[in-house]
Amino acid sequence: MEKILVVGSGFMGSGIAQVSAQAGYQVYLMDIEASALERALEQIRWSVERVYAKGLLKESPVSVLTRISAEKDLSRVSEVDWVIEAVIEDEGVKRTLFQDLDRISRPQTPLATNTSSIPITRLAERTSYPERVLGLHFFGPVPMMGVVEVVKGEKTSEEVFERGVAFVHSLGKIPIRVQRDIPGFVLNRIFSAAFREAVDLVDQGMVSPEEVDIGMRLGYGWNVGPFEIADNAGLETCARVSQSMRALGETLLAPRSDLIERMVAEGRLGKKSGRGFYQYSPEGKRLPK
Known about the structure:
Shape: globular
CATH class of the largest domain: Alpha Beta
Low-confidence stretches: none
Order of helices and strands: EHEHHEEHEHEEHEHHHHH
Strand content: 5-15%
Largest sheet: 8 strands, mixed
Number of domains: 2
CATH superfamily of the largest domain: NAD(P)-binding Rossmann-like Domain
CATH topology of the largest domain: Rossmann fold
Helix content: 40-55%
Mean pLDDT: 93
Structural class: alpha/beta
Radius of gyration: 19 Å
CATH architecture of the largest domain: 3-Layer(aba) Sandwich
């Protein structure tokens, strides 16, 4: 049984751990915060049971959950076949982590990042083997989304890139091959352009978030509207992505408005805090206005 270490047990990390375990991998989910790990395991248990109840999982939830173990440090790195980083969207934090992973992992182990905006090449710069660093950009909620961007850095080897494609297939998802390392990759660049305009229009009082979401669902066939996506991802993550885009010179993809930053300053982080563009119950259910 192949082993995977997922570093970071937040919304994305816990989802990656879940789908990997459902696909038959032994998963080590690592976080330095014990409370975060506890919440993640509870969320994974709830989600696996829900998937099973819908008839989308043949194996029992208990069997899946036994393949996930909580880890408080990186001591498992030398044992695993894959490392997937899903920590905070902060380039400094990620670069330091990749330097540590490079030092203690086996040279042949692929090191993947789930970053949504930071170039893979910049993270690989801190490693001795940049050819094994690649992007595996999942979309959330991970168990429900069917695609993963596989991103090639400037020095990512073709072998590691193809291993990433095969790994995504093994999870039952469709890989989107991103052959060149550009900020935001492909799908986020397209979404960011639409989200930038949506945020500006809402901040100017021209339309409500709910009406934009309804319009994009019914008018353009989106399953989820842009503000619903933002609340699910976490508005602090959206803010960091925007800051990263600006820092990389991608001003056309970063919102002109500072609405997101103002909401984050007020503690309105989206579903996780109970209030973002919408309000939510403690269980994460959206509340009517």
